[in-house]
Specification:
- The structure holds 2 protein chains of 2 kinds.
- Chain A has 6 helices and no strands.
- By secondary structure, chain A is mainly alpha-helical.
- By secondary structure, chain B is mostly helical.
- The chains are: A mainly alpha, B mainly alpha.
- The interface between A and B is medium-sized, with 22 and 19 residues.
Amino acid sequence: MENIDLVAALSRWIHFMAGVMWIGLLYYFNFVQVPALRDAAADGTATGISKHVAPRALLYFRWAAVVTWLAGAALLGPLFTDTFLLRNGMGAMGIGAWLGTIMLFNVWLLIWPNQKKILGLKPASDAEKNRARRVAFLASRTNVMLSIPMLFFMAGGWSHRALFGL
Amino acid sequence: MKNPLDSLWGTLIAGLLLTAVLYLFARNFLA
């Protein structure tokens, strides 16, 4: 086996595992934790989630995002430049790669810094916490929205690109 | 106007619409 094939095979495996963890936790936050926290705040039981669940979930979430991106870059290998420049037949994959990259920046530049204020890991006034809640929420929802075309262009749409004319 | 990202259904519909727009772009300009 060529070494480059081995790198691609291992990168794809790692890319999928980390990607499942990243997007799985993103969907957990949006489909489960946000509505659960709303209900828990009403009956005074939100502290358990905020103190014990959210920090752990965010830890795996943000580092899985990094591993997913790095393994994806390794998987692209010599096609990395063509992909991000949307050329030489890599245009559809490039759209997915750009969406994933925007999502990674959303995690590290918007979601995580604001979650640190919300969870009390970084000092913040009540007004700053309220603003942080809104920014983190919208950034997280934006990532759910972006994940839909990202998965189309990287997964189903790519493996069936002849069918879709891509 | 209400932000569609405030609801899960709004988020999913926005994602599907974005997929359609990007698909048309890719098919017409990148394929």
